[in-house]
Amino acid sequence: MRWADGGYTVVEVMVFLMISAVIFFSAVTVFHGQQGKTGFEQGLRDSVSKFQQYVDEVTTSVFSSGQYNCAVSNSSGRATLSKPSGGANGAGSNQGCIFLGRAIQVIPGQTSIYAYSVLGNQYTASGEPATSYAGTLPEPALASGVDLTEQYDTPWGKVTSSKITYSAGGTADSSLVSFYNSLQDGYQNSGVAGAQSITARGYNFTSSSLTSVRSDALKSCLEEQNANGLNCLNTPTISQWDICFSSTGSSQTALLSVFSNPSGITTNVNFTSCT
Question: What is the model's pTM?
Answer without folding.
Answer: 0.80
